[in-house]
Amino acid sequence: MTRPDFNRMDLHELKAYMLAHRDDIEAFHAYMDRSDTERPVLAVLEPGESLTEQVLEEVLRRKRVRDDAAHGGEQTQ
Predict the structure, then answer these.
(1) How many CA atoms lie within 13 A of 69 on its CB side?
(2) What ranges do the domains of the chain cover?
(3) pTM, whole model, 2 decimals?
(4) Is residue 76 a contact partner of residue 64, using CB atoms and an 8 Å limit?
(5) Between the CA atoms of 54, 59, 65 and 70, what dihedral angle is there, to the nearest 10 degrees?
């Protein structure tokens, strides 16, 4: 059987493949590597730290900056 080219799959296709082939460790690692880079964590709160409006605004601001950089500096509103 020919191995699929995980680099040619978008993240959604790779996830579907991984879920359909749960014993394929290579697919799992490819998905985890790609999901970490394509969908980074927005924020990590410290134990006991609550998601206040200020914290949420900062998280969303950082996401906008990252999204703008990923789209060649386009401004998003």
Answers:
(1) 7
(2) 1-39, 43-77
(3) 0.52
(4) yes
(5) -170
pLDDT tens by residue, 1-50? 688 999 999 999 999 999 999 999 999 999 998 887 777 666 777 888 78
Task: Classify 21 as helix, strand or coil.
Answer: coil
Q: Report, in this order, helix, strand and coil percent for the chain, each rounded to 5.
A: 60, 0, 40
Question: In one letter, which amino acid is 39?
Answer: R
Residue 40 class from Cβ within 10 Å (0-12 exposed, 13-18 middle, 19+ buried)?
Answer: exposed
Instruction: List all residues 6 or more positions away from 74 whose beta carbon is below 8 Å from its beta carbon.
Output: 68
